[in-house]
Amino acid sequence: MENIEQKTAAITEKVEQVYKKLAQNEQVKKALAFLKEDNEATTEEQIELTEIEAPTFEEDEKGKWYKKRLVELGVQGVSTDEVGNVFGVLPGSGNGPSLVVCAHLDTVFPRGTNVKAIRKNGLIYAPGICDDGRGLAVVLTIIRALTAAGIKTEGDLIIGATVGEEGLGDLRGVKALFDNRQDIDGFISIEPGDPSRITYLGTGSKRFNVLFTGPGGHSFGNFGIPSPIHALGRAIAKISDLQPPAEPKTTFNVGMIKGGTSVNTIAETAEMLVDLRSNSQEELEIIESKFLHLMEQAKEEENARWNVESQVSLQIEKVGDRPAGSQDNHAIIVQAARCATSVLGFEPILDKASSTDSNVPIHLGIPALTLGGGGEGGGFHTLQEYYNPTDGHIGAQKILLTILGLVGLEQVTSSLLEKNKSKC
Length: 424
What we know:
Oligomer: single chain
Strand content: 15-25%
Largest sheet: 8 strands, mixed
Helix content: 25-40%
């Protein structure tokens, strides 16, 4: 499921008719025009958001700013949950589905990073300006567009921002969202990127901190005892010899290692961070099982090598667990995004799997997408990250059209997204 799939798969007549009506509707046209006119203001808001530091696990300040802004824009019942997610509701007019629309507050950059935006040759440079400053700003401009056009949806929009999307944040925000709510029928997360691309598959990952410990000693005087570093070396060699399947794509990586005191010291500790990934939850669990077995083998072999009373011990901590997920590329939510893209004159592209907030709902069987917020960007996750706001509104327009198709436009179109009757 790794490769880009079936860009030309058939769209049902029902979906086509909905988007034909939306494209002809005057309120929708007004909303799309507003998004274009609001592009500069959205960019300024994007800069303001980016200049509020928000390392993973330290999103509070940006979350407070975002909560205040949602309230100002008329979102109802805005609150911050126990992990820091900020969400409210734009209620619909009827018994339609509930759709989450969100971006993530956190960035990969540690506190103290210079996040002041610099404009140069039409580009805006700042760490986090795209990921996910763009997504956060698009959520806000969409709210403004709905208000400006007087649009009333049939379904509810659960709208806001999550925490912990990046790195060792381990999707803690979106996990908490779905742990705490049973009224979510669909989910859209907004990330930077090309508005023609549609991410509908989730790459899962499991991450581990592996720690070997031992008595340690002098490299010469205490020679003959097991070494945590040697055990770590055996472990890394075994990981390197794993043979995961090419399809579904499954990978492994030792990302960081540390340990030891000096060249003539038998180390007391040695540790590593390991990343396992797959587009299949089943294959992810298989490689995890193999990995855990190999770590025990490495410990046992190092201890058996010296066969003395002093031994190395092993401690494994799971520090990340992102579920994999897949959904049919004919799913209504995918068709809606494709039609929204086509209405704007672009060829929709079903993208390869990746790891985003959408992993969690897809894994749970809830229709979900991650969509690009528009504009061009580069240098993601580096200090040279930049954003080009030219035509950035197109991403916001595509997302708005996708939303309207899914939740329905009052007295114009019914919602394409189904309301889960068990939640009624």
